[in-house]
Amino acid sequence: MSDRTEKSEKDKAEKKAPLLDVHKMQPETAVAYLIETAVNQGASDLFFLADEGKITVKVRHLGIVRTISQIPLEMGKRCLGYIRANAALDLTEKRRPIDGRWIYRKPEGQIIDLRINAIPSLYGEDFAIRLLVRANSLVPLDTLGMTTPQLHEYQQMLASPSGLVLITGPTGSGKTATLYSTLTRLNDGSRKINTIEDPVEYAIEGVRQSQVNPQIDLGFADLLRAVLRQSPDVIMIGEIRDQETARTAVHAANSGVVVFATLHAPSTATAIQAMRSLGVHNHFLATSLRGIVSQRLVRTIDPATRVAYDLPDGPGAFDEVKPWLAPGEGTKLYAPRPAASNQFTGYTGRTGVFEVMSITPKIRNLVSEGAPAREIRAKAVEEKMLEFRLAATLKVARGETTMEEVFRVVPTEHLIEE
Predict the structure, then answer these.
(1) What residues make up the domain containing 227?
(2) What is the secondary structure of 25-58 as a DSSP string?
(3) pTM score of the predicted model
């Protein structure tokens, strides 16, 4: 199929998705319809965006934002007022950003946890609503997208009696899902597990979960110090944001507690530099670290409708990843075929692309000596770490995703061999 033909089919498919007409509905009916439509489509976020003369409603589905409706301005304001009331937001405060929560129950009983943020914008207010479906909250570790060797490495980190494990990546890369899957694996009743979150996204029976509260100046560092007095075996920190939290997490990991935490860093090796920038001493960081996981989420092709293409002549495109391929894999390139059954995109879900770095004795020495991230990464690759470049290529070779999708999500510098 030529690129022109594929684009034409995609354009035709997209025309089958008209905007939802809700302007004749009552505000409460329109809001419920938009929420349930977004949830039924598998969206992670629902947006109400104030434009000139209208409110534009968008969803984020599989990481891509698209418009689903447009509402006249006056009705849109009534819809936002209805959301404010249900989320217990101050109805009069529209000059400052504000956060709220709404537990929405669908008629059939399904519970949707709505995390709402409102912020003033040029033409009024923008609402961002995170859709958390409780029934879909926890997934097994082996379904996240790690290769078998990566999963084995990560499970070895989980078996450690103490130490710090960092989960890194940008917002929306699946870090929280990895943490919750980890807690589920560890939550067998033999350990006392405490979490510090902002906010608590999913309740897990048997896990002691605490939430930061900026309104009373209760932050991650304050809660972490208090949790340490609760005699935990495992601590999960939603995010390391400041020097005090970073240093306290390292101290806890060195004192006999297993600490899992997320951190904004583009790759495994740069996470070490990020911790140093937060004032953590090289020696203490080296002795506490057990491993680092960096990740991204890519959309997966619908296996029932994907289109296969022969590989071009020349050197094998997937030669580097042959050791990880099963017989028959890596012989074709695949592309999505848009269809009405998957919101016209040809993609049906998302999977993780991972880089998993175990802290070996040689890497620990480099961290302790203050070696730069480039040198640490080179040593990890030498010790058989599957770097982002190869992990992403492996997903393409197996027909799980496309190279276009990989380039959309994974930074180019991680896809080029140095």
Answers:
(1) 141-414
(2) S-HHHHHHHHHHHHHHTT-SEEEEEEETTEEEEE
(3) 0.85
